[in-house]
Design a protein that fits this description.
Layout: H1 11-32, H2 38-90, E1 95-99, H3 117-147, H4 151-155, H5 157-164, H6 166-176, H7 184-212, H8 229-261, E2 265-269, H9 271-286, H10 290-332
Antiparallel strand pairs: 1-2
Helix pairs in contact: 1-2, 1-10, 2-9, 2-10, 3-5, 3-6, 3-8, 6-8, 7-8
Length: 333
């Protein structure tokens, strides 16, 4: 069984039609005979060959000439729509974290009394120490501002209080950033990053504290103003605040992690993403590949060339036919 490509008529079918056209042209040429005016006869042969070819292949040519520009326009519009949908899909989260509805198949939310003792203690300790660390950080910022004796803050202490609230607010913001991550794997990586930064700053803080304060040593000397210890004091202050910031964030993440163990929040596919996936699939189904349209344009060019070739062949055949007839006539005479 012979298979043909889409939009490509069978080659054998074209050859069959062309053979019928040649036979029709030869019959017409013989009807003209050799007595007619050569120029006029050749003109009639060409016209007959063209009309005969149009009668056979004309409908296909007409359809291609009318449909191909429209097909290209539809393909361009569909391709533009497809690219817009794909861009929108890339910007859409594939999953959503939502609380499950209270249905018969849902796992009930575990009450706090049913938590393990270790998780209860860790959860409470995390919240308590988070509040202590962030309060201490805000207090350190407030005391550092007031120690500088800047007039605007001395006259309006509330401004120093508001400025010191930036540290606990920043810690809460860092904790909330995890909600923007799409997968549990990325959230886990973010949690490990925060824990690592907290460990690093706490380690640096321990060394900086040891360089500035010695436990059990009462022979501390005040460094002169603008002396060598100024840089150490600046580093110690920065590290102190960063350690408090990331420690508070880490404790909040620990509490959140424990709470999620006993809640019924679930990760579900994003309905908007599913709708976009269906629209993308439909657009791909409507999109006509470039190769198919190129074959159709090639078929149109092939038909035009076939028409010109058939007319030229019929003209050549008729000229040769007249010449043979004239030679036979001379031989007979």
């Amino acid at each position: 069984m012979k298979l043909n490509k889409p939009d490509e008529p069978a080659k054998d079918d074209d050859e069959t039609k062309m053979a019928a056209l040649r036979a029709s042209g030869e019959r017409f040429g013989r009807m003209l005979g050799v007595e007619s005016d050569p120029k006029e006869a050749i003109k009639l042969v060409e016209e007959h060959a063209g009309h005969d070819w149009d009668r056979t292949f004309g409908p296909e040519v007409e359809v291609l000439q009318r449909e191909l520009p429209l097909r290209d326009e539809r393909a361009a519009a569909t391709l533009e729509e497809l690219r817009a949908l794909e861009e929108k899909r890339r910007a859409t989260k594939p999953y959503l974290i939502v609380p499950a509805s209270k249905g018969p198949g849902d796992r009930p939310c575990t009450s706090f009394r049913q938590w393990t003792m270790q998780d209860q203690v860790t959860f409470f300790a995390s919240l308590i120490f988070m509040a202590i660390v962030l309060s201490a950080g805000a207090g350190n910022v407030y005391s550092a501002i007031q120690a500088e004796a800047i007039p605007v803050f001395l006259e309006n202490p509330i401004l120093a209080v508001l400025l010191s609230c930036l540290l606990p607010s920043g810690s809460v913001a860092l904790h909330s950033f995890a909600e923007f991550l799409e997968t549990d794997r990325r959230r886990h990586q973010y949690n490990k990053l925060i824990a690592t930064l907290a460990f690093v700053f706490l380690t640096i803080w321990a060394f900086a504290f040891g360089l500035n304060f010695q436990i059990g040593d009462d022979t501390l000397y005040a460094a002169p103003i603008n002396g060598p210890s100024d840089k150490a004091a600046v580093v110690f202050t920065i590290v102190q605040l960063m350690a408090e910031l990331f420690s508070g964030t880490s404790l909040a993440l620990i509490a959140t992690h424990l709470h999620r163990r006993y809640t019924k929040d679930s990760t579900i596919p994003n309905p908007e993403a599913e709708t976009l996936d269906r629209q993308i699939a439909q657009a791909k189904a409507r999109y006509e590949p470039v190769q198919v349209r190129q074959r159709a344009w090639g078929r149109l060019a092939q038909l035009k060339a076939m028409r010109a070739l058939h007319i030229a062949e019929m003209k050549a055949w008729f000229i040769a036919f007249r010449r043979r007839c004239e030679e036979l006539k001379k031989m007979i005479s």
